[in-house]
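W.,

You were right to be curious about this one. When I first looked at the sequence I had no strong expectations either way, so I just let the prediction run and decided to look at it fresh. Below is the sequence, 469 residues in total, followed by the output.
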Amino acid sequence: MFFGLSAELLARFQFAFTVSFHFIFPAFSIGLASYLAVLNWLWLMKRDAAYLRLFDYWKTIFAVTFGMGVVSGIVMSYQFGTNWAKFSDKAGPIIGPLMGYEVLTAFFLEAGFLGIALFGRKRVGEGLHMFAVAMVAVGTLVSATWILAANSWMQTPAGYTIGANGQFLPADWWQIIFNASFPYRLVHTVLAAFLTTAFTVGAVGALHLLRDKTNRQARIMFSMAMWMAAIVTPLQIAAGDLHGLNTLEHQPAKIAAMEGHYETHKGAPLILFGIPDDKAGVTNFAIEIPVLGSLILTHSVDGEIKGLNAFPADQRPNALIPFFTFRIMVGLGFLMLGVGLWSLWARFRKRLYESTWLHRAALVMGPSGFIAVLAGWYTTEVGRQPYTVYGLLRTSDSLSNVDAQAIGASLIAFILVYFLVFGAGTFYILRLMWKAPLGDDGELEQAPVRAGGITPAIQMEATGGDNAV
């Protein structure tokens, strides 16, 4: 024991801490890589220097984010050997190749083209440079695909056999990769990454519009971000609903914990707020809407929702964390939808760039994507307990033979080093965002050359070129 905490609990805390730091960087870089590809393509199509300046502005932020994501991911992966060696032994024949495919097909793709994307425009030509930027964006999506395939298999295992030594051995890679929850988890996570980037970009645009409503680069990034918020948020809500139905089918105990239901109900209410008490088997101070829980989860007013008490006590998760993290995620999702709809109304009234209160709201919502993805991850992972491989390998049977004192000491070291290193990196990113996307002289770049002659950027500004976005 270490300060009264077991080795298993400390190992879970350590993994949760390191993954939380790691997750926020890919959640941002996945969407930002695609945003950079769009900006670069718009520069090539329009020859509008504002897009080139925005590309250069965000590529620096992407480079720092990408670097911190790589470093935090390496540290996280070591824990499979130090703290979770038994899990690595049992699930290694399946998880190992999936992680290896991610490195071979995605990380090498990202790393191989990253230098060209960041520094190669004038060295390799615009066509090859555009290809490199696109490959970095594709690489981030391929990386997410393999990682989510591995995580989804742990949630809904399929395509395996169990060997004589208790290892999970691959029997059908198609079923392993495309397991029951994988499509829903992939769509939900990628859309979350796009929304994380959209609200970050929107917050930066809003910040600079609050300072100067004529800043054209701020106008462009804010407009693009609000289009993404308005279009993708409803898609994300729909994807989340489908993901919830899939979870109800394959992990009903997780749904019961998320919803705060201890007793099985037909026509179950939707609990808006309460405090789950696992010992008493009840959600205290519950604020409910009758029947709505069954209607959402089963699409029927008398659909049956199993409660936690329907499962053996040693086979169900603690309800407190997934109950609240799920509500944080959903609540932020609807706030995102509200900002997106607000932006559409402001755009319709031609006040998208003048609405100070909209800009303030977008600025406040800047971190919302990061908070939502972390809340969603906590919901998913805590809701899977007490298993690492759902229904097959318990967390207590996945732990290495390691002392609580050793894990506790390394956890303290991680906390100190992470807040120092990644705190400095985050501070640097915020400083980059604080600076307006303008040159030192406040002018746009030298006029771009088209095949048919020169189109001065100042002329494009006068004709309202930003309205095309």
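Here's what jumped out at me. DSSP finds 15 helices and ten strands in the chain. And, maybe more interesting for your project: Residues 183-399 form one domain.

Coffee later to discuss?

I.
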